[in-house]
Amino acid sequence: MEETISLQDLFKTIRKRLGLIALLTILAITIAGVISFLVLTPVYQTSTEILVNQSPTETGQLTNQNIQTDLQLINTYSGIIKSPVILGPVVEELNLDLSTEQLNSKITVSNADQSQIVNISVQDEDPAVAVEIANTTATIFESNIQELMNVDNVTILSPAVLKEDPSPVAPNPMLNMAIAAVVGLMLGVGIAFLLEYLDTSMKDQQDIEDVLGLPLLGIVSPIVEKAELGPESKTTSRRRAG
Distance (Å, rounded) from C-alpha 189 to C-alpha 95? Predict the structure, then answer.
C-alpha cells in the first residue's frame, strides 16, 4: 500500500515543529550577523580611470582607424596592468608587504564595451592603501607603456580619491543575514520532517487506521481513579458508623 502525504499533513507537521523551525532560523540569522559585524574584516574599494587615446594627426582629427586601434589594444593593456612588469614597481614604490600575485588578486581591470576608458579597481582592508595602489598602478603603467609598446596613447583620466567616510563593499551584513535566514528556515523545515518521519509512535485513532488499514470499532476511555478520602471524610464516616 502506497503511503501518501496530503498538503494538510505537511502543514500539520510544520505547525507542530514551528518552534524548532523558528529557533533554527533565528539562530542562523544571529550567527551570520555576529560573523559579519564582529569577525569579518571590512574591505574597501576604489578605482581610477585611464583613457586610451592616440594623439591627433597632423590635421588635428582622430581617424576611425586610430580609435579602432586603441580599442584593440585595451585587452593587451589590461593584461599588462596586472603583470609583474607593472605590479613589481608598485610593490617597491609603496613598500607593500605583498607579493605581485597577492597584489594581482586585489586589482580588477575592466572597460565598457567599445569604450576607450579603462577602469582599475582596487580592494583593500585599508581605504587609503587602496587609493595609493590604484593611483600608483595607473601612474607606473602610463610611464612604462611608452617603452613597452612604443606608444603614447594613455592618459590618467580620473585618479582615485580617498573619501571622508568610505563605506566597505564587503561584507554585506544584510545580505549575509538574509541568506542565513533562508538556510535556517530550510534546515528547520527539513529537520521537522525528518523528526516526523522517524517518529513511529501512534498518537491517535487516525494513526491506527493508517498503519493497520482497519476501521476503528471503539475507543476505551481512560479510567479516572477515585480520590482518597480526606481526614474530615473519614471522621464523618466514623460518626455515622457509631
Answer: 53
Count other Cβ atoms within 10 Å, centred on residue 150.
7
Determine the 3-state secondary structure of 214 from DSSP.
coil
What is the tens place of the pLDDT at every residue in 86-131? 999 999 999 999 999 999 999 999 987 778 899 999 999 999 999 9
Q: What are the structural domains of the chain? A: 9-36+171-200 (no CATH), 41-54+64-168 (3.30.1890.10)
Give the distance from CA 2 to its chain's centroid: 41
Q: What is the mean pLDDT of the chain?
A: 83
The predicted-structure confidence for 185-227, as pLDDT tens digits, reads as follows 999 999 999 998 887 766 666 666 666 666 766 666 666 665 5
Q: In what order do the strands lie in the sheet with 44-52?
A: 107-110, 117-124, 44-52, 154-158
Name the percent of the chain in helix, strand, coil, to the closest 5.
Answer: 55, 10, 30
Q: What are phi and psi of 79, to 5 degrees?
A: -70, -35
- The packing angle between helices 173-198 and 18-34, to 10°, is 150
Q: In this structure, what C-alpha cell is assigned to residue 163?
A: 573619501
Determine the longest span between alpha carbons in the chain, in angstroms: 140
